[in-house]
Amino acid sequence: MLYWKGWFAETVDMALLDDADRIFFSFNCRMDGAAACIFQGNGAGEHVIGENAGTIQYGPGRRGIYRQSGLVENLSIMIRRDLFETWCRDVDPDLSEMLRSGGFQGGHRGGELMATAHLLGEALQLVAKGDRQARHSLWFQAQSMLIIGLFLEARTEAGEGKVSEAQRQRLHKARDRLLSDLSLAPALADLARDAGLSLPSLTRGFRALYGDSPYNLFQKERMQAARRRLLDADGSVASIATEFGYTNTSHFASAFRKQFGIAPGSLKRQG
Questions:
Q1: Cα–Cα distance for residue pair 101/70, rounded to 1 Å
Q2: Which H or E element spans position 180?
Q3: Helix, strand, or coil (residue 76)
Q4: What is the CB-side half-sphere exposure of residue 216 using CA atoms within 13 A?
Q5: Confidence of residue 160 (pLDDT cuts 50, 70, 90)
Q6: Average pLDDT over residues 165-187
Q7: Which alpha helices (H) appear in the chain, and where do they start and end?
Q8: Could you read off the pLDDT of 98-120 as tens digits, one per residue?
Q9: In the prediction, which pLDDT does 157 show?
């Protein structure tokens, strides 16, 4: 078990090397800022970490960067793959494939999962302060097993592993169109129609496959792209805001700060 609590006034990048050979079940208990993992190899790319949501990661030997600004509190349960597989022989195909080749899967949510993660996090903080009698060691072991079980239930409830291949292809098509122009989000009805899906199927499918709503996914990707442009130090904040569809620079700054916990002008000066 690991409880991470960190606050950074500015964006900080930390090198990652997965030398634990464990499956990570991580739940982000509190966020007043932004966090992301940027991996090389299997699961390569930038994975934004959301508040009150969980991720499953597996990638022995994988390298990358952990990026954080503001406050983040995160609980992780780490378990050997062979032990996990003796407990759970009925995992869904997506998780089974990830455990075979490595990767990162987010969007695990649920009221009981959130409550259990917060409860265990609070107990671990008491131990960190020297209260060794806060809970019996068997209680911590039981809560750890409960959290892993709730992660698997969250996958079932969200429909992960139940998206058909035909639906998956339609959802990928919808995602590609959604992110093709980050200055203007298409209407959801148009997005669903062009992908051959009903509007409810589109929204349910996005949550099952990508762990977020279409609009939230669009907004996160738009801010990530804007962040890269700001770090390139090419163009003013106002011109970059316009490039990404904002007619009001203050609205752009507010959206940027909400995601990253830092004003775009401050980030640009760092770059």
A1: 33
A2: none
A3: strand
A4: 14
A5: very low
A6: 90
A7: 81-87, 93-101, 111-128, 137-158, 165-178, 188-195, 199-210, 214-231, 237-243, 249-260, 264-270
A8: 888 888 888 788 788 888 999 99
A9: 61
